[in-house]
Design brief:
Blueprint lengths: L1 E3 L12 E3 L14 E2 L17 E4 L2 E2 L5 H4 L2 E4 L1 H5 L6 E3 L5 E4 L16 E4 L3
Antiparallel strand pairs: 1-2, 3-5, 4-8, 6-9, 7-8
Length: about 120
């Protein structure tokens, strides 16, 4: 409860009226999503069919409300710029990585390295 009254001489108001002020606090988006592991894999895929799930990533956000904890997944810029980026897709809400075509071991004898980013800008 907050009380305001006049201290001037002479006083303009001999009476005071108490009133309440309600202060609300809301969560701000101050935490970045964190992956549950720093590195996922390696995953071995032999003779896959297109749309086969090959990996899944998970990140969580410590912010307190649903709007600020919504996590969205995308491939990072290096992955998007790679010559193999069109071989894979990622579900933006689940983090599930799938192949988009059959993978050829001879095309990438050392495998594929994919970078994923997690953001929470809903």
């Amino acid at each position: 409860q907050l009380v305001a009254f006049d201290h001037a001489t002479p006083s303009f108001n001999q009476q005071f009226t108490p009133f309440s002020i309600v202060v609300g606090a809301t969560d701000v988006n101050d935490n970045a999503p964190m992956f549950s592991r720093p590195v996922y894999g390696p995953y071995y895929v032999l003779e896959n069919n297109p749309a086969q799930a090959v990996a899944s990533v998970t990140a969580t956000d410590a912010d307190g409300n649903e709007e600020n904890t919504f996590v969205q997944y995308t491939f990072d810029n290096a992955t998007l710029a790679s010559e193999f980026s069109h071989f894979f897709s990622i579900n933006s809400t689940s983090g599930l990585v799938r192949t988009t075509q059959s993978l050829d071991r001879e095309t990438a004898p050392n495998g594929y390295e994919l970078g994923v980013m997690a953001t929470n800008t809903k």
